[in-house]
Amino acid sequence: MMLRRMDGARMWHVSDIISTVEFNYSGELLATGDKGGRVVIFQHEQESKNRPHLRGEYNVYSTFQSHEPEFDYLKSLEIEEKINKIRWLPQQNAAHFLLSTNDKTIKLWKISERDKRAEGYNLKDEDGRLRDPFRITSLRVPVLMPMDLMVEASPRRIFANAHTYHINSISVNSDHETYLSADDLRINLWHLEITDRSFNIVDIKPANMEELTEVITAAECHPHQCNVFVYSSSKGTIRLCDMRAAALCDRHSKFFEEPEDPSSRSFFSEIISSISDVKFSHSGRYMMTRDYLSVKVWDLNMENRPVETYQVHEYLRSKLCSLYENDCIFDKFECCWNGSDSAIMTGSYNNFFRMFDRNTRRDITLEASRESSKPRATLKPRKVSTGGKRKKDEISVDSLDFNKKILHTAWHPKDNVIAVAATNNLYIFQDKIN
Amino acid sequence: AAAAAAEVGGPCRADGDDSLYPIAVLIDELRNEDVQLRLNSIKKLSTIALALGVERTRTELLPFLTDTIYDEDEVLLALAEQLGNFTMLVGGPEYVHCLLPPLESLATVEETVVRDKAVESLRKISQEHSPVDLEVHFEPLVKRLASGDWFTSRTSACGLFSVCYPRVSSTVKAEIRQHFRTLCSDDTPMVRRAAASKLGEFAKVLELDYVKSDIISLFTALASDEQDSVRLLAVEACVSIATLLPQEDLETLVMPTLRQAAEDKSWRVRYMVADKFSELQKAVGPEITKNDLVPAFQNLLKDCEAEVRAAAANKVKEFCENLPEDSREQIIMTHILPCVKELVSDTNQHVKSALASVIMGLSTILGKDNTIEHLLPLFLAQLKDECPEVRLNIISNLDCVNEVIGIRQLSQSLLPAIVELAEDAKWRVRLAIIEYMPLLAGQLGVEFFDEKLNTLCMAWLIDHVYAIREAATCNLMKLVEKFGAEWAQNTIVPKVLGMANDPNYLHRMTTLFCLKLYWLLFFENTFALSEACGQDITTKQMLPVVLKMSNDQVANVRFNVAKSLQKIGPVLDSNALQAEVKPVLEKLATDTDMDVKYFAQEAISGKVFHLLSLCKKTLNDVSRILHVRYLCINELCSSLLFTVLALA
Hints:
The complex is a heterodimer of chains A (434) and B (648).
Chain A: E1 3-5, E2 18-23, E3 29-34, E4 38-44, E5 58-65, E6 70-72, E7 77-79, E8 85-88, E9 96-101, E10 106-119, E11 143-159, E12 169-172, E13 178-182, E14 186-191, E15 199-203, E16 216-221, E17 228-233, E18 238-242, E19 254-256, H1 269-273, E20 277-280, E21 286-290, E22 294-299, E23 308-311, H2 320-325, E24 335-337, E25 343-347, E26 352-357, E27 363-367, E28 383-385, E29 394-396, E30 408-411, E31 417-422, E32 425-431
Parallel strand pairs in A: 28-29
Antiparallel strand pairs in A: 1-32, 2-3, 3-4, 4-5, 6-7, 8-9, 9-10, 10-11, 12-13, 13-14, 14-15, 16-17, 17-18, 18-19, 20-21, 21-22, 22-23, 24-25, 25-26, 26-27, 30-31, 31-32
Chain B: H1 2-8, H2 20-29, H3 35-43, H4 45-66, H5 73-83, H6 100-106, H7 112-126, H8 131-146, H9 151-158, H10 161-164, H11 170-184, H12 189-205, H13 208-223, H14 228-244, H15 247-253, H16 255-262, H17 267-275, H18 277-301, H19 306-314, H20 316-321, H21 325-344, H22 349-359, H23 362-383, H24 388-396, H25 398-405, H26 407-422, H27 427-444, H28 446-452, H29 454-461, H30 466-483, H31 485-498, H32 505-529, H33 535-548, H34 555-568, H35 574-588, H36 594-604, H37 607-617, H38 619-631, H39 636-647
Helix pairs in contact in B: 1-2, 2-4, 3-5, 4-6, 5-7, 6-7, 8-9, 8-11, 9-12, 12-13, 12-14, 13-14, 14-17, 14-18, 17-18, 17-19, 18-19, 18-21, 19-22, 22-23, 22-24, 23-25, 24-27, 25-26, 26-27, 27-28, 27-30, 29-30, 30-31, 30-32, 31-32, 32-33, 32-34, 32-38, 34-36, 35-36, 37-39, 38-39
InterPro entries (chain B): 2AA_helical, ARM-like, ARM-type_fold, HEAT, HEAT_type_2, PP2A/SF3B1-like_HEAT, PP2A_Regulatory_Subunit_A
Protein name (chain B): Protein phosphatase 2, regulatory subunit A, beta b
Family (chain B): Belongs to the phosphatase 2A regulatory subunit A family.
């Protein structure tokens, strides 16, 4: 796939690191959350005639502070404002709605436009001067006049106090009225209109915390079947639950696990098998999981092994020791599908991200950085050399920058437009036209 | 602010019309930054409209309101509600269609409460449309909503079909049916749910033939929707549809779907069936109940999901009551009771507690002999249940069984259970049982109470949790109300007074709280009976104790003396007040402790004494009001002052 950077890829200057990226259902809007608790929404501009070579750029549509730092006085804990996840709701009227969450609190935001303003007061003139209240001889009803478009973000609901541990996932159900939120040990089900209670549907907390052997790392609702959801664990397994069977989903209906290859077992096996993200395909037939070194695609009808496995950065297998020492081994990479489920994308280090074409089994490594990608230039594939000899244009494993990691990526639901968050920069690439 | 402005705007100048000023303020405040003021203005929308007149309301106010849908939910909700009562303000029924545009935009907002209110108002004003206007204005609106881009408008449309259907021509009727059909198979589950929940209502206004041809197929489709959230709503529709159809059609048209719902794969659907079981039972009639619902109910009582069992358990009594009389006892004994017996030892406490809340009702249906033989063991088992909620539910329904078999029969097993609850380690459990004490006392009678429960009630007074002591104090007063003053004098007062010398200051304070409440209770009764019975005794017995406690070494006790005196002051006669109470308060007012000083001064500062003199003067007039006011002990002084001053 040929990609090139669009002009719209803002050199958008914030010191804060982007912590989540998400397109809405139509792809017209793209939301990012950052460590500072802010949410920035980009809107796809319509094609313009004077710049026909562009399909349209994404420009800032609305920016708002979603979460503030808090302090839990009972537990003496600081609650970070960092946005862990953003999920859009299916559009229900002219306004757009999204859920954003930090470690503890989920908020429902409404993003709406206003292009009319009321004018005409009885007690003051348009310039604000007060009129003599005793000289009112007639009543004026305000009239609405057109004004410059204003985008407002208003908090609609706050879903708080339901999570003891850190929220890692939120996912809107296909019934359009509920969503789930998952923390390390529990999954709760909420009604979008009810904030004062949620139902606990999964609880893996052992009676004795010393017996704790695994945690929930991600959870997602099935895109079509409102009763099905999956959650992944730090042990590399995925459980699929059916909410029809029982109110409490402690018993899974499917259990996906790939038997470990005994020959490759090492000290790090358990850590690197931990699943950092799970995503259903748009069709609902497959799901994809990301562990530290690979992406796996599972057929929901086959529990004993994945149907496809893609190596993301196998060359790091020899580096696990140092990656453990600098804590990088615990990085949580996300993954995403393209609109037709034919390709998948996930991030790596050194501002590299990887794409895999499922039909041709071809893969590509690309880099998101200001130096290597000029606006409207085509991205060049990158290669990491693993052997002793380094070819031209290759980069050696030892010179990879592990501080530059691409954890969050998003793919437009219909078009070949992707958003890649590289620390504090957001890059938007699109398929080359012509 | 508007109200204040209306008052300020009093002085009138020659050239302005001062009556316009408050309205002008109201109109301006429609756009105030303060939500409360906007809300206030919206709630007075009728005043604004009245001042503007019907013409300007139609041409200026309504267009403005139509575009004001950016506001807070509570403002929009109030607006939606107001517009439902606006017909006269726009010029009567012939202009009522002017209200449609603002309500239409309100019917598309995302907030369900606002949308529902807008739909409610639309339904209301639809009745004020003439048949012609209904077709010219209202029906097109319904169509627009039904074919709207966003599902919010389509969900709103679902609620409007049934109000316009009966009053339109047959061609329009056909269109409406078509629209409803379309919405029943909408892409979004939101709309299908809205349609499913209005299916029964729509069926009621349809001609029977169309019910059979159209509604049944829609019902069947919704009841087998892929989303269980839609299917469960079809169960509700099932009730209304079954009521509409003649008995002979039920078997073929409704029962297959109902049977399928009762065995649905999703527990939520089965839960809904259990929850609606009584309604379903009434709707399908005795024959189908006997043949179909009894086995279905048995299955629900044995369901694998606890939520379903709990919902079914809740319905046990109602279901049994509504069984056809000729075979009721036989069905209960052979089919229902075995399941109930199993539920008594269910693994889930919610199931057991749901059962406990209704199981006692079976005794009246089954009669004395069956109750003693079959039900009593179950009651006793539940009384000994490990879950306090189950035991509480049994205790709170004792009266039903009492009527059938008499309390003596139960008391032997009942008492240990109550004692156990009364001493439960969890204070919330103790609190709950205290709340049942007055009820139990009423059911058991004074004799039994004195013998068995009195000691418990007194023990709570010295509980180590304040909430329990407080509740115990209130409980005592309720018992006094039940058993009368004499009983109180003999059993309660001596014990309470005895506690005044307790080494624990918290217990000494409990004495104070008891006495205070007791006094006020007495005062209230004195007025009610218009006879000063017992007042002397209370004064003679209790006042010295309270006054003596003003020397307590703990400051908390002392300032509570001051607070109590403030409250009971009005009840005392003026001699006692001047000779005994006042000196004590004056002494407390010079206390070394700040708080004691404060409350003593508060008590002296006139409130009590000033009040009292006023009180005496107007005593006859206000006695009735005072009687009411005194019930509200916390607000006593301020409200009393208010009343007295207002009357004086």
